């Protein structure tokens, strides 16, 4: 089955991971800007990072036949430095017309601080002025519900926001309703330790349905599994879900959301090949 990984930090992965993902049916990835494991010291550090995301990484993905898309921002972990964050936000428009740049992300909250909220709002303002899609990071563990509630409230305060153009990521059992009830898209991140396992994500699908929801691996430099989406596909198959419903979650839904971006130029895979493979199965 073809699938799209809508949130995976491939800069932190080796080229072999692209090959493994392609063999499992991955045809496209979306890579948000994120924390490098340390705080960058200057706006030029971010400029070089954005060049890597928009210039080299699409080339590296193409070696395995995978299409690569990206998002730009200064992440929540570094948003405590308000002055640097504002320099980065002012620089982002230099890159917004690059091929494959889908919007602003992953923005959000980390520790739910005042500075993080300030920079979140300023990212949202940039997205509204340039009419970009938004990809949102929600906090980890004990801060998740509070942070998700804060994020949703800040979005609802801005009457320019179109919920169907916002994706709230890392939702779990206690936050998925916050996103879906307000009309936002949401995504579940499949981690082997934190966030959702494929089994928990399957439970959430059974409880809340398959509209405006997708799954991703995040696949960063911490404990993560770049083949988590195929693991999720297998979990749903074991539960008896038809492939047509699974395909909606792992392929059709990301396409529907991403197609709202003017920079999403996607070449669909050869569906005839997939149909032949299904017959052989």
TrEMBL record:
Q: Which GO terms describe its molecular function?
A: hydrolase activity, acting on ester bonds; metal ion binding
Its domain of life reads: Bacteria
* UniProt keyword annotations, A-Z: Hydrolase, Metal-binding
Q: Does the keyword Metal-binding feature in the UniProt annotation?
A: yes
The record's listing under Gene3D superfamilies reads: Metal-dependent hydrolases (3.20.20.140)
**Which PANTHER family has this protein been placed in?**
HYDROLASE TATD
The family classification in the record reads: Belongs to the metallo-dependent hydrolases superfamily.
What is the protein's given name? TatD related DNase
| Naturally occurring in which organism (per UniProt) | Symmachiella dynata
